[in-house]
Amino acid sequence: MITLGGRATIQHMGDLKVINVIPIEKGVFKDSLTYFTAQKVDIGSVVVAPLRHKETLAVVTSVNTVEEMKIDLKTSEFSFKKIGKKLGNNLFLPEFIYAAKDTAEYFASPPGQIVRLLSPKAVLNSWKKPGATVIERDRTSPELIPSQEKKNRYFEPLILQLPNEERYPFYKSMIREEFAKKNSVMFILPTVHDVLEVGEALKKGIEEYTTLFHGQMSAKSMIQKWQVAVDNPHPILIISTPISISLPRHDLSTIIIDKEFSPLYKTQGRPFIDIRKFAEFYAKRKQIKLVLGDSILRVEDIYQGETGLFVPATPLKFRFPRTIEQEMIDMRKKIGSKEKNLEETFILSDKLKTEIKNAISNRENFVILSARKGLATSTVCSDCGTVINCENCAIPLVLYKNGRDLPADRHGTIFSCNRCNQKKSSDIKCTVCTSWKLKILGVGTEKTEEEVRFYFPTARVFRLDGESAKSPRAATEIIKNFYATRGAILISTEMALGYLKENVDNSGVASIDSLFALPDFQMSESIFNTLMQLKLKTNKRFFIQTRKPEDKIFENVIRGDVLEFYRKETRERKKWGYPPFKVLTKITSEGPKEMVGEEMEQLRRFLSKYQPVLFISRGAIQKGHEKINILIKCGPTDWPKKEVRGTELSPEVTSGDSSSTTEEQYSSLLEILLSLPPRFTVKINPDSIL
Q: What is the full DSSP assignment across 82-99?
């Protein structure tokens, strides 16, 4: 007789079931745990599981009878515990759970943390709250049983590349078509502002059947709307940030990921995943439509359409001609005047100053884009060339006007890290040669604002960046005042592109050249997209200032030629082995120099058959510490493995024709990555490889 938790034996099992669960609480990184229970549970049910003398929220991923598991139980060396309280049946769809596991496998992350990431915190907390009633959602209810038509669905991955004025009418037509078929639609956007703005446009005429979700909702409102959206027997439109993609609707037929170019779909903390990839796995598991849409799609998605893995919903638009005045201004020529003794090169060319003056006289608005916020985007030592970096993040510190964070120094400025928000006085010396001769480089929004106000002292000038607008509401207010003031000037980072609801008369790019130097293989694509988005929002005149006029990106932007840019970019990526031609795995460890160096060298030798490249991140981390990385490349069909395990919901799906040797090899790599302790950071297809 085999004992289960000291409570029962196989000979006296009755209706006992053996279940696997994944913890979904913060900080719990277990993959899967096994328990037994006599309660009625299904895949997607939420339970309380005893773990390390505590109780943790967990979701059921598999259910088997003891009879089915008898052989495994007899050979098991472990004693299984009894599960705790059941909080609800079918609180997640089985397909959602399988997609979380697929995503976890692809990004070498714990599946429970992915479930938690894609579920509203308020809803999870409400299930575990003392005195909460058990939610019994019967999968046999008529409104939850897929019709024969729905059972015959198939996975349909679509891409849509159209400007906003053409894309959103297409979405409206698609949504109403799905409603006519009694299907629900989920519309995902990257930010709260996007949800509120796009939601207003899409819900017209179907307000009663449209629900908006985002992270700034109160817990009470979130829980109430969640319950209504789940129980509504009528098809609904769900417009949300990724937080609500877990909402369990069996009649869901379409998932739309709009503004899919946004980098915000990639998480900045654990688990490091791409929401767009999760949506692909989810749609494949549910056998439904997936639409990835934007004015200009990512290179990876256009390539997927070119190779037939994705299908264009309409012919992709590759040319965006605009009948507006356009000019590229070569900033290498001698420009400016001697009216002001500026420390650095002039920010505004004579041409741009003339255009701004004319716009003010004609009461036309003008947007000026700068690459980064602050006074200067980087600072270097004039004697030894060392860049002044953040001690925590190893990225250049940005110079700002002094605020309330530090007492005023002799310059009235401070250094700040745009990633971790570390502050440091600007009265510092070079950490390498101790020189005081520090030189600021690059142009930030604050420096641009200074020069605009100097030349146009009577103009109404607004600035929009992460410092001037700490919340979406504050950003929206700045944009509202800008539109309401004729002849106004808005100085902003690319942040403005998400808030400019209406087109502007004129726009100019004061500085974007510094972005070319950033260690990101996607940076050219990001620059091109930013410039094109600004151009598409301009009605009359568009200008680009640059010291790199020979770069083809600017010519492609002026001509509105997406196809030529795409072809050049794919050639470069194929040559150097970047996505979509390779899958990149980056393993990072940071700590005391000797310890990390020895540890990463051992790991490099252990991974030698995968041809790893070991390198140290640029810049100082902190004294005596180093950040060391290992980079591995493999073919897209070899990662994470050849097969996705089949279930009763969908047949086995092959993702390539790799040899069994390669499949075994990279399955083994996945197991190695999953076994690494939390002090190692693993990122699949990271934004930066340095």
A: EP--EEEESSS-HHHHHH
Lookup: tokens for 414:
């401070």
Contact 65, 80 (CB under 8 A): no
- Strands 583-592 vs 366-370: parallel, antiparallel or unpaired: unpaired
- Do residues 556 and 565 lie in contact, with contact meaning Cβ atoms separated by under 8 Å? yes
Phi–psi pair at 619, nearest 5 degrees: 90, 155
pLDDT score of 251: 94
Q: Are 349 and 331 in contact (CB under 8 A)?
A: yes
Spatial distance between the Cα atoms of 165 and 557, rounded to a whole number of angstroms = 19
Long-range residue pairs from 260-266, CB within 8 A, at least 24 positions apart, any chain? 260/292, 260/293, 260/294, 260/297, 260/298, 260/301, 261/294, 261/295, 261/296, 261/297, 261/298, 261/529, 262/190, 262/191, 263/526, 263/687, 264/190, 264/191, 265/190, 266/687
The β-bridge relationship of strands 46-51 and 54-65 is antiparallel
Spatial distance between the Cα atoms of 129 and 143, rounded to a whole number of angstroms: 28
The CA distance from 103 to 100, in Å, is 5
Burial 617-650 (b: 16+ CB within 10 A, else e): bebbbeeeebbbbbbbbbebbbbbbbebeeeeee
Q: State the Cα–Cα distance between residues 158 and 551, nearest whole angstrom.
A: 32
At 507 the three-state DSSP class reads strand
Task: Judge contact between 359 and 487, C-beta under 8 A.
Answer: yes
DSSP-based three-state secondary structure for 520:
coil
Measured CA to CA, the distance from residue 387 to residue 484 in angstroms comes to 42
Q: How far apart are CA 39 and CA 521, in angstroms?
A: 52
d(CA 640, CA 643): 9
The model scores a pTM over 0.70 = yes
- Reading the block at residue 73, the tokens are 């139980």
Separation of alpha carbons 185 and 275, rounded Å: 17
Residues comprising the chain, all counted: 690
CA distance 196 to 659: 48
Query: Which of these, 24, 44, 39, lies nearest to 247 by C-alpha position?
Result: 44
Instruction: Label the pairing between strands 423-425 and 413-416.
Output: antiparallel
Peptide bond into 640 cis (omega under 30): yes
Question: Which letter does DSSP use for residue 329 in this model?
Answer: E
pLDDT in tens, 368-416: 998 865 444 556 565 555 566 666 655 566 655 555 444 444 445 666 6
Nearest alpha carbon to residue 432 among 388, 486, 473: 388
Q: What is the DSSP string of 108-172?
A: T--HHHHHHHTS-HHHHHHHHSTTPPPEE--TTSGGGSPPHHHHT---EEEEEE--HHHHHHHHH
Mean pLDDT of 232-240: 96
C-alpha 187/C-alpha 174 separation (Å) is 11
**Residue, of 177 and 443, whose pLDDT is higher:** 177
Round to whole Å and give the CA distance between 366 and 360.
8
Q: Enumerate long-range contacts of 177-181, CB under 8 Å, 24 or more apart.
A: 178/235, 178/253, 178/254, 179/206, 179/209, 179/235, 179/237, 181/149, 181/253
Dist. CA 226–CA 209, nearest whole Å? 13
Q: Which residues contact 447 (CB under 8 A, 6 or more apart)?
A: 344, 347, 370, 374, 375, 376
Q: What is the pLDDT of residue 340?
A: 42
What mean pLDDT value characterizes the chain?
A: 83
Q: Is 383:437 a contact under the CB 8 Å cutoff? A: yes
The pLDDT of residue 655: 37
Contact 577, 668 (CB under 8 A): no
Distance in angstroms (rounded) separating the CA atoms of residues 291 and 105: 23
Contact 517, 490 (CB under 8 A): no
